[in-house]
Amino acid sequence: MKNFCRVVLCTLLCAATIFSASQSVAARLNVVLIVADDLGWGELGCYGQQKIPTPNIDRLAVSGQRFTQFYSGAPVCAPSRCVLMTGLHLGHAEIRGNRQAKTAFPEFEEGQYPIRSETITFPELLQNAGYATGAMGKWGLGPVGSTGDPNNQGFDLFFGYNCQAVAHSFYPESLWRNADKVHMNDHPIPGHKKQPEGEVRMEDWIAETYASRPIVAEAEQFIHDHAEKPFFLYCPFTEPHVAMHPPIETVNRFPESWDDTPYRGGNAYLPHPRPRAGYAAMIAELDDHVGRVVAAVNKAGLMDRTVIIFTSDNGTTHEGRGEPNLHIGGVDASFFDSTLNLRGYKGSVYEGGLRVPCIVRLPGDAGAGRVIDAPAWFPDIFPTVCDIAGIKKPDGLDGVSLWHLLKEKISLGPRPSPLLWVFPEYGGQMAVRLGDMKAVRRNLKKKKSESTPWEVYDLATDPGETTDLAEKRPDVVAAAVEVLLQQTSRNSVFPMPKPEI
Fold it and tell me: DSSP 3-state assignment of 370?
């Protein structure tokens, strides 16, 4: 019955689609949505990166519009992607953390906790409106055969990693093409291994096929195959998420002088002899992927019919303990100034964990080079894509469409709620942005003696969140608590304490 009701709702929504009388199906705009994995706010040239060239993404920024205050849906992978697909913030989203499916559904060996069958995703609406829909990369919202299977959530074709844990290796045994496993490597490489002693060699952690290459090729083929009808292509690429073992030729683009000490896997994932060059290579690979996708759109003659959106699912990788000079997986975020002095990293509701790059290129390069300072976030993608495609938006979304802001430079209207995050992991955290003021509470799920009080920051003058104004601004704390009480629904799978002053 749930599946039937879901199909009926999708059908009714799509039946209400409003198109211009002169607009044929073939003339509708295509949408390409590229989402990087753990890409930091300052890790692109167009956002201030000094050491890692990102020419393809930088060109996209030159021809597009670049947001300076854009936020992910969550500070880690699965909940951020749930917010993206459903248009519901973390106070309403059903997936609010990274939880393996097998903890509740023992029939699944891999994959994350699945979104429900009745959940409405925007790819479903596009699919029912006649769009071809493809996803190439990392999913993380439910195993193959579950209610969260990408084929059950609006995608005609999925190719890549269904499970985030499997995606820790770039040389897996296989990838998924819909419900079928496609063999990749005869000698797959695990995503985690320590090497406390001996020479660390790149070639020891390399197999036959770097999985990202066939994933990008599949994206290129999808564009070619659907050039004559409208399509939505979702590219949740895995770079620069560790483990760090990119192709050796990409590592060799970067100076040997950067690295004098190997990473031995002490902060999890895989060792690497040149961790700084290795991480730069991961971002270079990501940039190459973006260049190939944009080139495929151009080769198909679709640049004037395609909206391209680029962003990241959360901030750069957080600190480690085993090798304290490096972050998890051997990343040296300080060397690359990965957050440009924003506070916090992945897993944190401070700015460094949530503020991410976002670039939108419109057909004809409309608005090329424009910088948008208005705050925006993942829940805005759903209604924006609906407006791009000319389909009716469902009620109850937590975002607002950015389409008129992008196309006509019209200011955003009132939001259904302030920007907020209810994150039960990493100790339990909450954050609310109210205008330029931001309230943060951490360690909500720890012992009372370990919990921390509310913090308040003025992002207009203190984007690095260095000066806590909570004592001077109790009104901001009170307003944040009121918003959270109104905007947070109960979630037994990802429980959180109620906010209080």
Answer: strand
